[in-house]
Amino acid sequence: MPSINVPVVHCRHCGQEYTTNHIGRHEAKCLHDPEVFARVRAALDDGTGGCIRIKDYEEITRNAGNTLPWQQPLISRLGSWAGVAHHFGLRPYVSARAAEDAEIWSAHPTLTPEERAAALWSELAPPTFRVSRVQEDEIYPGLFRCVLR
Ligand SMILES: [Zn+2]
Fold first, then answer.
1. Between residues 77 and 143, which one has the greater pLDDT?
2. Distance of CA 84 from the midpoint of ligand 1 (Å)
């Protein structure tokens, strides 16, 4: 079988080798290109220096033609969505719930996970209920079940 030699060229920004039919697509999204970096950073910025949610970036990317890399290659390359935020000099995205959780942790640093779960639930439960029992899930360690009365 004859071998087909596809010409190879180097990306002008990162130096990686690409075939001539893939170089254009790569260079349009190469993060080593300062223009691409700035474009991605602007898309990720929530306006306060924080990173937006993955699904919001996905939405922006879908509507950006072919000008932004998809979230999955970014995550694969940079380790996590927080890693993506860090790479672009942004604060990682924190959900409102995780922020609340962190607040309870910092307000009560000596709580056991069970006490913390009870504290969380007593803030979320209607005032006529109280947490009567907390137990760690046997199948999903780290998850706690709260019984309300
Ligand atoms: Zn490149």
1. 77
2. 17
- Which residues keep their CB under 5 angstroms from ion ligand 1? 11, 13-14, 30
> SS3 sequence, the chain?
CCCCCCCEEECCCCCCEEECCCHHHHHCCCCCCHHHHHHHHHHHECCCCEECCHHHHHHHHHCCCCCCCCHHHHHHHHCCHHHHHHHCCCECCCCHHHHHHHHHHHHCCCCCHHHHHHHHHHHHCCCCCCEEEEEECCCCCCCEEEEEC
Please state the domain extents for the chain.
Answer: 8-87, 96-148
| Cα 35 to averaged position of ligand 1 atoms, centre (Å) | 12
Rounded to the nearest angstrom, the distance between the alpha carbon of 137 and the centre of ligand 1 is: 47
- Tens of pLDDT, residues 5-18: 888 999 999 999 99
